[in-house]
């Protein structure tokens, strides 16, 4: 294999390894950034909903119990009701976002957990110190990131509706029947789960990755071409000229000109050395030719 072929093969191997490593790490970083962005959005949405629940517990509920016994008004003081109303308003602008309050023994059967939601709840029940869990689920609408937090009975006031049917408000038993009772103080009964789509951030990450890889490949091609041009001008052509002259001299043709010694690099020094060797060889041949037979 000629010098140019060896040089190009080495360049291709180095560029290929560099491109593969850059692609791997950039793809991972871009997708991690996309996931972190979605997780941040889910956290903001979760905090918004938790604020609505806290407001309902601390501000709305006590006032409603003092002023009215109307069914609809009492529902406004229920934390889950307030949280879902806030989410309904959010979904008018972002319909792809989701929020669920699920419990193993819910008052409203609509809040019964799916299998994966039940697993999340049981994870919190198995480790009371765990305050948050997130993951990515594949759905028919694409990948969704979920952020879950436990629902724990931290205030005895919540037990007024969930201890026994006799202690619960009559309207509640009339609407929901014999569901959602037997809860205990400090017990983790369910989970709040926010669902945020990942399709847009992932698509943005993929587009940025493709742009980065195309740009990097273009840079590599440009460097490859430039290095080949430099290799040809600075080394290959000059070495080829030296090889031609050396071959002619080896055949006894001393009429051919000397090497071009222009420059101060290693090839120029090599040319100078060959020229000195050529002149010495010519002198030696002249000396032997002048000796008497």
Question: Briefly, what is this?
Answer:
With 293 residues, the protein is an alpha+beta fold. It has seven helices and four strands.
How would you sum up this structure, described in words?
The protein is α+β, with helices and mostly antiparallel strands and 293 residues long. Helix content is 62%, strand content 12%. It has two domains: 3-205, no CATH class; 206-290, no CATH class. The chain is built from seven helices and four strands, in the order αααβαββαβαα. The chain has a four-stranded antiparallel sheet. Helix 1 (3-67) packs across helix 3 (79-93) and helix 1 (3-67) packs antiparallel against helix 6.
Comma- or semicolon-separated keywords:
293 residues, alpha+beta, 4-stranded antiparallel beta sheet, 62% helix, rod-shaped
Give the topology.
Blueprint: H1 3-67, H2 71-76, H3 79-93, E1 98-103, H4 115-126, E2 133-139, E3 142-152, H5 170-176, E4 188-197, H6 199-250, H7 266-290
Antiparallel strand pairs: 1-4, 2-3, 3-4
Helix pairs in contact: 1-3, 1-6, 6-7
């Amino acid at each position: 294999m000629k010098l140019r072929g060896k040089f190009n093969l080495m360049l291709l191997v180095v560029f290929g390894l560099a491109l593969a490593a850059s692609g791997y790490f950039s793809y991972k970083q871009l997708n991690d950034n996309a996931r972190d962005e979605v997780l941040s959005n889910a956290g903001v949405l979760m905090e918004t909903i938790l604020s609505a629940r806290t407001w309902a517990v601390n501000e709305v509920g006590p006032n409603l119990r003092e002023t009215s016994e109307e069914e609809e008004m009492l529902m406004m003081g229920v934390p889950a009701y307030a949280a879902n109303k806030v989410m309904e308003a959010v979904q008018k602008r972002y319909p792809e976002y989701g929020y669920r309050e699920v419990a193993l023994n819910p008052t409203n059967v609509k809040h019964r957990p799916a299998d994966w939601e039940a697993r999340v709840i049981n994870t919190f029940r198995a480790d009371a110190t765990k305050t948050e869990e997130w993951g990515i689920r594949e759905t028919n609408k694409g990948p969704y990131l979920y952020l879950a937090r436990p629902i724990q009975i931290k205030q005895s006031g919540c037990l007024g509706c969930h201890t026994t049917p006799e202690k619960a408000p009559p309207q509640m038993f009339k609407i929901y029947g014999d569901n959602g009772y037997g809860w205990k103080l400090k017990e983790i009964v369910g989970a709040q789960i926010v669902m945020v789509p990942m399709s847009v951030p992932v698509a943005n990450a993929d587009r940025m990755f493709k742009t980065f890889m195309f740009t990097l490949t273009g840079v590599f091609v440009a460097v490859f071409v430039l290095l080949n041009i430099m290799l040809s001008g600075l080394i290959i052509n000059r070495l080829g000229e030296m090889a031609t002259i050396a071959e002619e001299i080896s055949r006894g043709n001393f009429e051919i000109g000397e090497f071009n010694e222009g420059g101060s690099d290693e090839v120029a020094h090599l040319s100078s050395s060959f020229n000195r060797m050529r002149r010495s060889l010519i002198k030696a041949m002249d000396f032997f030719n002048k000796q008497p037979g």
